[in-house]
Amino acid sequence: MPGSQIQIREIKLADAQDVARVHASAWKTAYRGIVPDATLDGMSEQVGAPRFSQRIREHLDNPSAFPFVVAIFDGSIIGFAHARQPTDSPPEFDCEIGAIYVDPQAQRRGVGQALVREIVKSFVVFGFSNMIIWCFTGNKWRSFYEKIGGKLLPVAREKEISNKKLPLAAYGWSDLKSLVKRLG
């Protein structure tokens, strides 16, 4: 799956079911042992599709929305990412990737980099310069952020899922123009 064959495009309402499939599958693979099993076992394409339909509809109804993109290979959605205004982040960060997920079958093939590149290119066009990404501290894929130049920040917060508080770590980038070049 060479990176040049991966297409990145803005999300469409019709993508909700495929995005829910990628989301559930990525969470079950990446967060087993971090997120309570009952939560992961309850995730599915069918359960997530209505929620993603609503989020996509809200995104499409907002002309000033941050990017929300999907990665497509061979006609199928294999990943997605969305950006947002930073939440509960240090004030120097003016943009945030709120979610990035790749189908486990497509990981380690440049999909994540292609998604980040597209989001960051949009950030640069809009004049943003300092990006943050939050992730579970136990996430085995944290090294991806380091590989693309993210610096582990001396900040932390928690996310509550199924009455369990899970620690989050943050990675930051202070030069998005350089990041775009780095990602090709």
Q: Give the CATH class.
A: Alpha Beta
Q: Radius of gyration from the CA trace?
A: 16 Å
Largest sheet: 7 strands, mixed
Q: Which shape, going by the Cα principal axes?
A: globular
Give the number of DSSP strands: 7
For the record, the CATH architecture stands as 3-Layer(aba) Sandwich
What is CATH's topology name?
Aminopeptidase
* Protein structure class: alpha+beta
pLDDT below 50 for ≥5 consecutive residues: which ranges? none
Quaternary state reads single chain
What count of domains describes the coordinates?
1
Distance between the termini: 16 Å
How many alpha or pi helices? 6
Order of helices and strands: EHHHEEEHEHEEH
Helix content: 25-40%
CATH superfamily: Gcn5-related N-acetyltransferase (GNAT)
Strand fraction equals 25-35%
Query: What is the mean pLDDT?
Result: 92
Spatial strand sequence of the major β-sheet: 1-2-3-4-5-7-6
